[in-house]
Amino acid sequence: MGTLINEKLIKLDMEVTTKEEAIENLAKLIHEEKKLNCVWKENSLDKCQNCDFCSKTGFLHALHEREKSFPTAVGYSFAIPHGKCGSVKDAAIAFARLKDEVKWGEDGDEDEYVKYVFMIGVSEEAAGDEHMRILIKLSTSILDDDFRDRLSSINTKEEALQIIKEYSDNIN
């Protein structure tokens, strides 16, 4: 998992008030790291006039569709929104520790609040094995008390990256 995340894909104490804002901000980090591509060009359609818009919009659409089918809060104040789509050029993980918890469930769902968000982006081609491998590693890490405690007390992106890599490398 070490090559999927770097310090530019980590945001500490992100100030958001909704799940949608958290998703938008993390998708923006993935977009800024050039992990998304232009879906128009790849499909040999007319040249896109705004590649930044279409690649990020396609990825956001995939993320929102996944959230509609089942919210991605996994307990312990964590959520793992994930999207599989043609907009993803290189698989990526972004992480945010939110300044304040936000409600993650939809209307009618249990009120689940989230403070830590791992976002996963994978291409449709890599959706099977790679997607599941990443989800399993993150989910297993989240179950570990020490992992959660350490993420709650970090002060820098470097510390966050070190902890994430350490735990993902120790999971087989």
Question: What would you note in describing this structure?
Answer:
The chain is an alpha/beta fold and 172 residues long. It has one domain: Mannitol-specific EII, Chain A (3-Layer(aba) Sandwich), CATH 3.40.930. 42% of the residues lie in helices and 20% in strands. It has helices at residues 19-32, 39-42, 51-69, 129-142, 145-152, 157-169, and strands spanning 10-14, 73-75, 78-79, 82-84, 92-103, 113-122. Strands 1, 2, 3, 4, 5 and 6 form a six-stranded mixed β-sheet that branches. A hairpin with a 2-residue loop joins strand 2 and strand 3. Helix 1 (19-32) crosses helix 3 (51-69). It is globular. The termini are close together. The model is unreliable at 41-53 (pLDDT under 50). It comes from Sebaldella termitidis (strain ATCC 33386 / NCTC 11300). Pfam families: PTS_EIIA_2 (PF00359). InterPro entries: PTrfase/Anion_transptr, PTS_EIIA_type-2_dom, PTS_SugarTrans_NitroReg. Residues 3-167 form the PTS EIIA type-2 domain. This is PTS IIA-like nitrogen-regulatory protein PtsN.
How is the secondary structure organized here?
Layout: E1 10-14, H1 19-32, H2 39-42, H3 51-69, E2 73-75, E3 78-79, E4 82-84, E5 92-103, E6 113-122, H4 129-142, H5 145-152, H6 157-169
Parallel strand pairs: 1-5, 3-6, 4-6
Antiparallel strand pairs: 2-3, 5-6
Helix pairs in contact: 1-3
InterPro entries: PTrfase/Anion_transptr (IPR016152), PTS_EIIA_type-2_dom (IPR002178), PTS_SugarTrans_NitroReg (IPR051541)
Organism: Sebaldella termitidis (strain ATCC 33386 / NCTC 11300)
Pfam families: PTS_EIIA_2
